[in-house]
């Protein structure tokens, strides 16, 4: 993105939904709120190219000029996430097909197969036109390719592309048969033409096929992205290019791998909980984004951009839209900035009258500017302006490893429990760290670990030889490790390592797990340290490790639940179950303490989130009071939001935020 | 229907399921029970036309003659709700297709697409044959077209017809694009051929398309009906024509609009609750029927006919068949007569040995005539005979507005809560009125309101300019209004009115709603009058109205929940949530009292339903004791069922009914 | 199976999943565990015939020779349950189709339609090749055709075959129309071509069509089996042939009818409960197997073989794999032997690294031979060797009738309750007998009853004339009968018997049921003997019977719930509801006592299962302590497992088993 000392502030702006007279009101309202960046064109294809090859760009010219005149920069999107109706009509073979063979139809968004040649050609076409026209427009600060890549398909084009991808990955059919264990259930392939996508089948599907299908889609969507990126770069190499990640276990995208292909990691984040877990989810989302950014650019600061969040609502899993309490909009936004976002962008600027998302929240709601939400919008703009000096990275000495392939493999049928979930385990340990006041980074197998005292592997199911070496080297060299159940059980093809779980990590952990004992939904196991555990237990035999906590009651009474093992110069902890939040918090505090890592702000009360950004020669302490009462937090510095000088401690009102420039030296 | 002083009594009679020797037994049993009207032929197509163009009508001749000889009139049905197997085999293109593209097959009933030309031709064919043969048969009192119109389809024929309908509705593509807000998600259409039915798609569908698809089906089914009706009328204009409405939110039929095309509103009613709500549902069903009848014939008495109900069972949502308690059959039947039905008709006469509905209840059950059910059948026939003098309309000064389009629009995805339901809100306020002993009529936007003191709009989501004027005029002229949450939020295309909810009703209500706060499933809000509320709350700003009750606790504590606004000569109340039943009952009592409307039978105990029918020069008070103990009800008159004279009050035994001819003058 | 004095012990062995060097380890481990029988080749088609017509059998030669050399016999399977990928590619028309019309694809197992000619031809081909090569191999003790027959399909081949089958069953269309009651809903057929399989349809399907479709599939799968069997027999008539039954209400297989076509009934049994119900389910599974065996061979001992069970896990309905407690593997195995199994076979020998069932439990788990499971495997082998002398049949004087067609018919839509389930009712009364310590056999309508004092009909919904005569003769001749609700209600075409339920059994039971009163999910009815009842109640009128217990409270208060009727020389009890387990236990104790039948081991404490096998001149008492404490059981004999002599009683430790050779004379 173009250099700009300001924090970015704005959101998706869809002028095509409104008559031109509204545009000027929009710009006025944006200026009142200090908005300085808007995303334009995400779903505008049918307006930009109403018929194949006929382009109507004048309105976009006018919008960009208008924004530029108001000193508002533009994230210009390619509109390829929603091909126009004429495309669907002309290319029915490019419509997506489900595993059941149902052809999906136009009527929503994303009704295309990204492996269909006609789609790719049309996408390149409109991207080329936009690149030619706008690559040097002074308003354009960033290209935004597509929107929330995340679809898959089972059409004939997909089948062909999948086979080609498999041939490249496995070399020959022997390789594939071996990787997929096709000797089970007589699935041995003797011709590439016999291989299809994992369509609806009679009974349990092949796990290797499922896993490769996810990987194939991550690579295929990435190719669709890079195709556009390269066209845009060719038109003007100085404008950076990104795409907005959408989070969720269902997305067949390996975000870490994609991070190497974007100029800036941009993330859409929509929490699903309405209580304090919303803030914990936001913190995790931000840490993931920063981790991916660093994975893509190991020498960078991990800067990233929150590209979308809902200003004033939280979508709950049951389909209800929860309205955020007053002040929460600002607190969420500053929480993201605290964790490295270059600013705060929202979906969307102005609420539409109709369309599928007519009730999605907006900075300018249906009620218009005379509304609480727009007033909070203005207040946030003011706050962000006061934080312009903040830079640098988040201070953290703990790294939590995430692994897309593990999350996919743990969603397969035929596992010992229906409740296995890599992302849930990541979230559980991240929540424990958050509650303990411990900052962490997210990391990916193979990344540099030299800045970290403690590495955490939460249900890192797939561990191949290279990843195992990465873990062993960290511990052997003096690092600390906390691995949770199911880590290291299988190899990169999801084949179980034999001779005892957790195969690849047996030696470093000093344990050998012989049998799994997944718990029933309403069952819990007691722990000797007073806590309880859920979801999973197992028979841990010690082969060098010492017990730290044992199970109480049940078939495993008296047997180890948590263990610790000296390995080389380091220590490896193993957690064979999922403890309750309070127990988990105590455990990570203990493990981190053992590794010499303490909380960001010792003495901060529960419910106050503390994050430190450290830049060249300065540091800033973000304090977010998520509770409903005033909290005393021990801290020193100057609060950028109020200008007040804080000595020894600050009284943070309920729901309030302070950003302290800390004393140097 | 032919003039007949008697109340109608009978049900669906399917002689084609039985050998001819049973027919005579049937007629004997009918006569013993005073049955005077039966519906014949509903599902007899494959017996009437076993091969295309070959008709076997002799058996029907014989049945009609037999019935006529026994003075039993006939509702003669066209059998088009279940085309014979030969039709499905010959016209696979006329089989219905689901949104997923699954072609449904023969094997049940209603396996046709009403937009398929072959189906329409075949339906016209058999109807023409029946019209020619039976239009002047002396037994035929009423034509019954088809059965429970309510199917939809996504086949190619539908697609073509849908486009034609859209062109007529919207004029041109600009109109359609505007109505559907296709600027959202790049759905702008440039050719009619691009538009399909709302098939399975990738993500959220377009609300405008969904709403128009429902309207299209209502009109298409209506055209299928009128096609048959016109053939029947042409054969003998003196025999009236109807079709039996099936209730349920899933039915793509605007019953009010259809009421103008039938000669008599006929309704099938199947309650789903087994406790007192069954009786409340029956009362609502009857009031709906009467409201539609009056909408279709504003100068009439609102007479209608209960065409089907289950004699002795209630289908529960979980799939269980609840057996009605003794006496309930009669009480349900008289409850419908109290509310304007010309009689009581049941599905069906004799329980079949097999077929899909072999356990559906019947007046003659599997056990035969030596059974409690048949004995209750005889008893009901006796009771109905005693009520022959009852006529006139139901006395009511409250009108509750229903709106099919609102109910459809509130079922769309992307709304702020998954629990929005126009019919549920209608039922909730109707239940409150029922509990308060207040009679109401059902009305439809635009209907005459001069007889009503109070108009109720329950979640009347769609309010266009014309409907708004109708409401404003009522209140301005001195009427009272009670509108509940989500009324007036959107226009006829389901596009949100801007600048504050409830857009179209802001001025008359004197409020401006800025934000919605839908409640979680297990959440409730407190109300300052001691009640509780569920499902929905919102931020109500007063712009002229006064608060009547406020929220207690939660994010809206102290803010208005119920308001009242003087507007012109009238008063408009706004209810921003769904109160519990007792609170709602108190509220409607208060609002009605303010409007000068009191209960039908002041002093009637809870659980005793009171309805007054008023005809020329006389009135009848129906009293139904739904409780399990004797209840004292203050009333005067002569009980038509017992002949007893009542002065000052009557002791109604548990479950009993009294119908008092009230003293005149 | 070849004569062999030993109990059989082993499981599925899949050498094709492992390199040849592992085979020798396998044989060593088998010998250490005294394994003497393994099933080979079940899913090996793609290894045996990697391309159409090219056979690679050398590896199988080597495996059989290796096993034979180690004195391990082989159950040789035809691999037809999983055609290779080349087959699916070459014959897409042979892939199965769901009721929705979805074509299932290769990727699991069982992706074929058994009615497709190409599939049948290919299956016969590979079977012929195996027969030619191995029919006289000395290792081969038994042929195992296919695996767990249980698929169905709706493709065109199926449609054609279904029509052919219907023509044979019903003779002509009149017969079919009558059987299916096609007069309901205008389904009268006039041409065979009009009839299809019960595909997805608009509303409730035809029950006659559904029932015949199940019967058709049972016969079609049986034809697929016998085709292979005949080929195998032709190659060597001395090697017996079987197939492994899979239990479950969803399986369209009438196992009783199939029993006449197998040389040995072989059953796969997977309990679904984790508590004591697992043992009760196992007991029922074993009794079913023995009952089928005797139905197939009325003069035999009812010997059968447990072909598959999971060594160390229980699959729970929610998808969790429960790990069995120590000792339970052995107890389950001996429980099956107690009830007539010739041995204990498991799925599978060695846990695979990958494939869909990579976490299914195995005798040699992922952890290898140094594991609790393998040690229990060795212990079981030792125990089985000690029981070699046990033979003869199970002693039982109670017969419980099962009926596949009743179980299918009670799964149809349109029944009065969604909770009707023949198998559940069988299980409920079997559990009551189990708890009461009463042994029973399973029987099938028409089987010889001379050895039984008491016949039980649990929800035997379909009773035709022949079956009714069978019941009447039993009771008339002095036998006892216990029939539960819904028995005898319908005929073989699922058409309701008229004039009062339970039609076909009214006279013998001396009752007439007029109305059903199914209970709501959370409802229960009180019984006058202190118990409670669920699911179902009904209005029982006495027409000769005497009340034994009545309902208390509810609409049926004071009316009969359980009745008893003298009929001829016998007594018939009727149970109109489903009592709780304790009440049911008391009831069967009383009914059995009335019939002169007492428990196997009077005085055995609750939770100790006692089964007696009686052979020529000797008897063996199996005692299984399923509780978690030592139990004293009154008994005498020599414990074959320990060699200890028991006089007067034995102290069975928690979870332990004793098998006593009882004193003779």
From TrEMBL, chains A, B, C:
GO molecular function: beta-galactosidase activity; metal ion binding
Pfam families, A to Z: Glyco_hydro_42, Glyco_hydro_42C, Glyco_hydro_42M
EC category: hydrolase
UniProt xrefs under InterPro entries: Beta_galactosidase_C, Beta_galactosidase_Trimer, Class_I_gatase-like, GH, Glyco_hydro_42, Glyco_hydro_42_N, Glyco_hydro_b
Catalysed reaction equations from the record: Hydrolysis of terminal non-reducing beta-D-galactose residues in beta-D-galactosides
Entry EC number(s): 3.2.1.23
SUPFAM superfamilies, sorted: (Trans)glycosidases, Class I glutamine amidotransferase-like
Segments forming domain Glycoside hydrolase family 42 N-terminal: 12-386
Keyword set, alphabetical order: Glycosidase, Hydrolase, Metal-binding, Zinc
Stretches assigned to the Beta-galactosidase trimerisation domain: 396-597
Gene Ontology process terms (BP): galactose metabolic process
Positions contributing to substrate binding: 109, 147
All copies of domain Beta-galactosidase C-terminal, residue ranges: 607-662
Stated family: Belongs to the glycosyl hydrolase 42 family.
UniProt-recorded name of the protein: Beta-galactosidase
Positions bound to Zn(2+): 113, 153, 155
PANTHER family reported for this sequence: BETA-GALACTOSIDASE GANA
Gene Ontology cellular component terms for the protein in this record: beta-galactosidase complex
Active site: 148 (proton donor), 308 (nucleophile)
